[in-house]
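I would like you to sit down with the record closing this message with an eye to the fold:
=====
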Amino acid sequence: MGRRWLLKSIVCGWISVALFVPAEARTVNVAVPTLSMVVIAFTAAKEKGYYTDEGLDVNLVVMRDTLGISALIGGNADFASMSGAGLTAMLGGVPLRFVFSSFFRPMFWLYAKPEFQDIKALKGKRIGVTGLGSGPDNLLRETLKRNGMEGGRDVTILALGLPSTVATALRNGTVDAGTISPPFNFVVKDAGFRELVSYLKEDFVELQGSVIVNDKLLQSDPGLVEKFVRGTAKGLRYARENRAGTLGILLRYMKLKDNLAGPYYDQVRPIMTNDGTVGTDFQQKYLEQALKVLAPKEAPSAERIYNYSLARRINAELDSAGWRPAK
C-alpha cells in the first residue's frame, strides 16, 4: 500500500510540473538513481537543450532502484536508469531492454570501518547497499562469493535506499561497511573509512547511466524512444568532450565541493562508453555476472536483454552530419 501511494504521489508531482510546460513540448519522466556523474549524459542533454531540440521536456526524478523500475513497469516512468535493478527484473521475465549505456564499469567502492583490514574481516557484520537486487548489491554478493562468503548468510546486507543514505549509515555506525558511489567515496575516505574494493579497478562489467525502456513503449511509440536516445547521445558526447562545461553541470546538480568536481570527472571519464553502446563481449559478461548471483530458472539470451541498434544508428547519423557539441 505504501509503495502504491508513493508512486501515485510521484505521478501527481510529474503532472503538476507538466502543467507549466509549453503545449508543443512532450513531457518525459525518467527515473534515475542519482543526479551524479552516473547520469551526466541526461543532465548534459537537459542543460544544453538537446532534449528541447527533440521537442521533449524531460523530468529527471531521483528514486531508489527498485521503485524506479516499478515505476517503469507500471508506466509511471517513460524511461529508467537503474541498471542493476532493471537487469534483475529482466531475469525475472519482465519485458524491459537496455538501449543505451553511458559507462561500462562499476562506479562503486566498498568502504568499511578502519578496523576491518580486508573483506574476510566483514564476516558476521552489516553491509549497506541501495537496494536488494541493485547493481551494488549484485557486485557485493559476487565479491563476497570470491572471498568464500555468502551474502545473507555470512554477512547481513541492508537495503538503505539512496546512495547518500548508505554513506550516512556508514558514518553513523548503522552499518560496518557499504557500497559507496561518488561523490560519497570522497566523503567517507576523508572521514577515515577504509577502501576495501575499488570496482573501477576490478574485472566487473556494470552498465551505468543506461536508458532502460519497456518493450511496450518500444512497440507503441518508437519515435519517442528515438528522440530521447538522440538527445541522450548528444549529452554523452558533450560530457566526453567538454570537461570544463561538464564540471559546471556537476556542480549545479550535486552538492559537491568545487575542488572535488575535477577529480571526480577524471576518475570516471575513462570508463565512459564511446557512443552509448557496448560490445557483445561486455553484454554477455554483465549478464553472466547477474546469472551467477540471481540464478533464475531460465536464463534469457543477451539479445533479449540488449538492443543498441538504435543508438548505433543515431551515432552514425550524427557522424555523417558532422555533429559536434558546441561549448
About this structure: Strands lie at 26-32, 56-62, 79-80, 96-100, 109-112, 126-129, 156-159, 177-180, 194-198, 211-214. The radius of gyration is 19 Å. Residues 15-22 have pLDDT under 50 and may be disordered.
